[in-house]
Amino acid sequence: MSAPEPHPPQVPPLEGGTRALATFSLALATLMNVLDTTIANVSIPTIAGDIGVSASQGTWVITSFAVANAISVPLAGWLAQRFGQVRVFVASTLLFTFASWLCGMAHSLEMLVAFRVLQGLVAGPMIPLSQSLLLQSYPTAKSGTALAIWGMTTTVAPVIGPILGGWISDNMTWGWIFYINIPAGFLAAGMSWMLLRHRELPTARLPVDTVGLALLILWVGALQLTLDRGKELDWFGSPVIVALAIVAVVGFCFFLIWERTEKHPIVDLSLFRERNFTVGTLAIALGYGVFFANILILPLWMQQYMGYTATWAGLATAPIGILAILFMPMVGKNMGRIDPRRIVALGFLVFALASFMRARFYTDITFWDVVWPQFIQGIAIAGFFVPLSAIIISGLSPARIAAAAGLSNFARISAGAVGASIAVTLWEDRAALHHAQLVESITPYHPAAQITLDALKQQGMSEQQALFFVNHAIDTQAATLSAVEFFWVSGVIFLFLIGVMAFARKMGRKPA
């Protein structure tokens, strides 16, 4: 059996300059989509402060987009079969651009979250359909190269997103993190329509699975509300959270039962009969959930407790994509010669290494101490997205690639939203616990604490100012200890995922 390549497309591949321009337009739309998540990470404190909410509430700006995106992503396959891949892709790109404009104009948390939900809903089909259209534009022998190009666009965002988001937050109004999508969106949509509108696959008038869609919205929405509101409402001590959790679990069970028996399901669960699709989707969901939680916690910790501006937090986290961009073309070119499972296992191993390096952070770390794990992690990203995407779609017909990409991306994005909510909650809860433990041994009557307070007073501080300074130092230490614990657990999970890849079907090698 050959390496992870899809079956030949039903339309001939593009050639020369036309293929290059089509690749650019599809990559630009994907970059814009992914960038809209990473660019907001370092801007959360700025957005939260400007609209008068806490930083934890500010994370709803990210999770609201993620959960709405997760709901609409698995619909990509059905929409493509019903209306055509190119039409749906171009329409999604234009609507995403319009929603970006609305987000930039929002002046309250409620408005911003509502517009982010709209943005996430219309963005859903963009990534899976860009992947499917890109694969159809390349010959089968170059499918690895096509996946590498697609993967690079999802990797460039972590490089430029934090820097761009930080610079905009420090020097302009935060609305510009959304306004910059407007020219890119019109350009990507226009080019894609001109170059690809004659390459539609046959469509079919499939009935709408309204029950399946309603159940999908119900359980995913209830799950995200449970995670987002849990901390504020004391988790399962609140009847609201208990009710939401029950709705999420029951809704998910009914969704599975309905989709398995529906003749035209909104989500093609039969894909899970394919072993590689199941293993690959599980690995990419769990891996991305932990990865996304890391890239959310790190800039929050740096800005709230370590004194970094948004710009410097962005510069510190941006190197994550440098090695990824360099290594990803090599991975795509050699997937036919090297077992993709080994590439993914190496990626998870490097992810674990970077996590354990962060688990050694302390309150006096330097800028470069933060940069090095980010830089090394670029190798992991190169060995993560591209080979796993290839494993997921291996052996599937062209007509099922959009559905497979949509469902796997649904799992990935949902895991990212869940991972972000759980990570922020656990980080804050563990920080509160560490703060309480540290305060137990550090009181104004403790000799060391008294010496510190006296020294601060000698520098001109009042007693209240000195106590505030000491409390802030304790907050910083507690948040750091909590972050370190999170990074350590992340490393353990990545090591576990190496074993998961052993269940994927072995693929043969191409001759050298």
Structure description:
The protein has 512 residues and is mostly helical. The protein folds into 2 domains: 16-208 and 266-433 and 479-503, Growth Hormone, Chain: A (Up-down Bundle); 209-265. It is 76% helix and 0% strand. The radius of gyration is 24 Å and the shape is globular. The protein starts with 15 loop residues before the first helix and ends in a 12-residue tail after the last helix.
List keywords for this structure.
mainly alpha, Growth Hormone, Chain: A, 76% helix, disordered C terminus
Q: Give, in order, the helices and strands.
A: HHHHHHHHHHHHHHHHHHHHHH
Protein structure class: mainly alpha
DSSP E strands, number: 0
What is the general shape? globular
- Kindly state the percentage of residues in helix: over 70%
Strand content: under 5%
- What is the tally of helical segments? 22
Q: Could you tell me the mean pLDDT?
A: 81
* Largest beta-sheet characterization: none
CATH structural fold name of the largest domain: Growth Hormone, Chain: A
Query: Considering the protein shown, what is the CATH homologous superfamily of the largest domain?
Result: MFS general substrate transporter like domains
Number of domains: 2
Based on the coordinates given, report the CATH architecture of the largest domain: Up-down Bundle
Terminus-to-terminus distance = 15 Å
Oligomeric state of this protein = single chain
The stretches of 5 or more residues where confidence is low (pLDDT under 50) are: 1-9, 508-512
CATH C-level of the largest domain:
Mainly Alpha
